[in-house]
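Protein modeling request. Please complete all fields; requests missing the sequence field cannot be processed.
Requester role: graduate student
Desired output: 3D structure, C-alpha cell encoding
Chains: 1
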Amino acid sequence: VPSHDNTLNKIINAHRSVIVNAFKKSYTTSTAATGANWSSAFTAISVGGKSNSAQFTTTNGGYKEHTFTGTMIGVQLIGNSGDTEIYSSSVQISIDGTAIDTIDLNNQWDNVSDGSNDNRRGPVMLFYSGLSNASHTIRVTNLTTNIAVLDCFFELNRPEKVSPVVVGLIP
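Delivered output (171 residues):
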C-alpha cells in the first residue's frame, strides 16, 4: 500500500514540472556537465524525466557539476518508491562549494501506475534561488554506493520575465 507522503511527493513533482516548463531558460543534460565516476546509460524520459541520456553513478563521492549565470537553478534527479530492488542513494547539492541540501532519493514515488509508468521511479525536481546574478557552479555528489541518477540542470528565468502560468495547463 503506498503511503500518503509518496503520493504527495508525486503530485508536488508534477507541479514542479509545470513550473520548470514555464520558467526554464535552458536545460543542460547530465552528459554535458563535468564530473567524475558517472555513466551514460539511463533513459530518464522513460520514467517521466527530460533526457534520453541521463547519467548514473554507484560511486560514493561521484559528482557532476554545471556552471551557469543567473539567480536561480533547477536540478532534476530520478527518485524511487523505496522498493529495495531499485533502492536509490542520497545526494548532496552544493552551490559555489557550499553544501546547501541533502536529498534522499528513496520514497519519492508511490508505486501506483498511471497507465504509462509503474511509478517505481520518477523525476525529483529541486529549485534553488536567491543567488546573486553572477556565475555559479552547482554540484551533485552521490553520498552512498546505491544508484543516483541525474537527469538534467535547468537554468530558470526570473518570474517577472515569463508569461503567466495557468495551473493545470502545461505551457
